[in-house]
Amino acid sequence: MSLDKVTAGTGGSSSSKPARPVRSHKVVFLGQCGTGKTALIRQFVHRTFDQNYSATIGMDFVGKLLSLEGRQLRLQLWDTAGQERFRALMPSYLRDSSACVVVYDVTSKESFDSIRSWVELALEGRSRRDLLLVLVGNKIDLEAQRCVQRAEGETLAKDLSMMFFEATAKDASLVDAVFHGLAEGLTSEHHKPESDDEIVLTMQPRRREAHDRNKKCC
């Protein structure tokens, strides 16, 4: 999977080559404070890991354009605060989302026990068919402190009809596997949203050609 960032836009074309459609999906990250939602996103988008923890205030947003089996896909990644005082704001963030990624810390039983409430929040007023749900057990590098076993996460994910992954934000390959699986789920024939949350963008041919010339392997 290519993780190159490119510029996308809309507009006319002077080239005879048709512009390739870019499908954009809003993906909201949910979970208790301190589970590593921000760290996962930063590793995927910026290839960085910051050991110093800083709680997200309200909401943060970043976009990533990637190529999956020759198809362009843009993920709009919404990083939400896990503190209780921000829960009232969640419905507005969840509106028109294509997918929700619920993150728990494998060293925190409390964060694992809260998953059902986050899923209920994500599905509030939504059709289950509209929303792709992903469960991620984070911080598996802290194996000695683990209190939630992989089998427990797999069982809960199956019960809630969620995709399941374990990862650590310190390992880019494991983080990529999460987002690769998410992208595949969004483009799957089995996931056909009934809402209008899926946006189709068009990459301008000139910008696309410049990207093709300058593209580097990551």
Automatic annotation (TrEMBL):
This protein's name:
Rab6 protein
- Is the keyword Nucleotide-binding in the record? yes
Keyword vocabulary terms for this entry:
GTP-binding, Lipoprotein, Nucleotide-binding
Please give the superkingdom of this protein's source.
Answer: Eukaryota
Concerning InterPro entries, the annotation shows:
P-loop_NTPase, Rab, Small_GTP-bd, Small_GTPase
Annotated region (Disordered), positions in chain: 1-20
- Classification via Gene3D superfamilies: P-loop containing nucleotide triphosphate hydrolases (3.40.50.300)
> Is the keyword Cell inner membrane assigned to this protein?
no
Q: Which gene encodes it?
A: Rab6
Per the UniProt record, the source organism is: Symbiodinium natans
List, in alphabetical order, the Gene Ontology terms for molecular function in this entry: GTP binding; GTPase activity
Q: Which Pfam families match?
A: Ras (PF00071)
